[in-house]
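ingest -> validate -> predict -> emit
validate: passed (alphabet ok, no gaps, 95 aa)
predict: started
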Amino acid sequence: MAIRVFIRFETIPGNESSLYQLLMENRTRLLRVKGYISGETLQALDDPTSFLIISTWNSFEEWNAWVTSKERKEMQTRIGHLLKTPSVPHAYLCG
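emit:
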């Protein structure tokens, strides 16, 4: 069953464009990842340091394979340097 994953990012002020660029780079990589269907990158209107990623996956197992991949861990390290607090993904079944 398909799932949708939500990840909120709170960047350190001044790093908004750098974070956005890395998120777009990551989404380009995802196009080659098994199980990835689609994604959106949203930036809050009332707080430009707040971003929300919404991605859709064929299954939790395919999402989990990406989460534990070396490629994602490397990207998370690069993104992590720009954040106020670590991001935490939340996965939901699509109904």
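The chain has a mean pLDDT of 97.
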